[in-house]
User: Fold this.
Amino acid sequence: MTDLMIRIKNLIHEYIERDDDGNATGSIRAVDGVELSVAPGEFIAVLGHNGSGKSTLAKHLNALLFPTEGEVWVDDMLTTDDGHLWDIRQTAGMVFQNPDNQIIGQVVEEDVGFGPENMGLPTEEIWERVDESLKAVDMEKHRKKSPNKLSGGQKQRVSIAGVIAMHPRCIILDEPTAMLDPKGRREVIRAARALNDVEKITVILITHYMEEAIYADRIFVMDHGKVAMTGSPAEIFSDVEKLRALHLDVPQATLLADMLREKGLPIRGAVLSRDDLVRQLTALYGGQDTK
Ligand code: ADP
Ligand code: MG
Assistant:
């Protein structure tokens, strides 16, 4: 037994490539020797350019894929143990990019109740869980609506509510904001942070928006199936050169802060937005010349 929520040992995942007749023609190593551990209650962000292996890694945490080599443990359950499949999926819930593919109910509250209903819970408890889950993502006032009347950010929050209604200890969000406008993105990130802060749920947020990773306790940057960087947001975002080499879109403000730092300005910590930079410069110069 360990105290870890997630434990990954030398994970390798290879997809088999096939031609039109279904014959194997080769293989792609999508995850290549990943080692990582996540403690209960941590907020982890996983960054990386397209094709770096983030989704493949995420699917292992939910036993949707199984290792070609290595081991994945979720709350001390080995994902390849058949007997644990249901427990693993209930422990580590998954939210995907497109909310339209995840919402099945005709009414919001009914959609959120599907998971608990499938768990065979008594009706009273199902409704309690629907109430608390909608509250946790700030969607209780929309409970009687049809999901197709909601904005993208609202729909994604309904998907999150559907997952947390099953009382997972860990939630994995695979680019949950990729299809959303800036307002929807903010709503979803706020909801994810609240689950971590208030409900103490372990959160693994996969994203390619660097601004969304700033709230994480730790960041993993993936590249070619490997973990290329790990550290706190301040550590990760201060190595701009490396981030660019890993093909991540570094925000303008971060680049500018990095240039100023190189010129000798004592800018400390992560600068990810114009506001961060203004705050830093104001602290340095007392707000005289920053207008
Ligand atoms: P990311 O989520 O970071 O964009 P993925 O895990 O989706 O990365 O993909 C990693 C690599 O594996 C890519 O080269 C991708 O083309 C390949 N890949 C992903 N899914 C499959 C699949 N079902 N079959 C074959 N190759 C795949
Ligand atoms: Mg992906």
